[in-house]
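Format notes (please read before filing issues)

Several people have asked whether sequences and structure tokens are stored in separate files. They are not. Every record keeps both together, in the order shown below: the sequence lines, then the token lines. Line labels are part of the format and must not be stripped during preprocessing.
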Amino acid sequence: MPKTKALLDGVPNRRILMSNQRIFVNLTNHPMSGWGGEQLGAAKSCSDMQICMSKRMPVLPAEFGGECILNEAHFLVNELESEVGILGKWITCHIMGEAVLSYCLVKLLQSFGVECVVSTTERVVEETVSPKGETVKTSVFKFVRFREYPTL
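Then the structure lines:
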């Protein structure tokens, strides 16, 4: 099973970030370009308006077992580390997606001190009747805040 690079060799990535630089990483299937002002503002406040980046959460085959998903999580953490440098407490990572992969990512990233968050929303449902007499439900999700994943 592949391990996260920093766990394997115990040596942090060679790229050094300035100590006052905060990074917000959006690791979901919802690109930041589609976010509303409130959610973008909250992300920027997590990153001191320095760096915000989006990475796509992969779509995993339903046949994948836990071992395959854990391998994918290690791959994503290694990829993130190669893009941002040393993983640590100056990174806030917004993680939403397939449940087991999200769990693995949160556990791995938290082991490096990365703050992991999930977005919380209020669902506003509007129910109308179409001209054909069919009931149509429309859901609008309004961003409320980012909630930190607890460290277990």
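For reference, the curators noted about this record: The longest helix spans residues 66-84. Helices lie at 5-9, 37-46, 66-84, 99-111.
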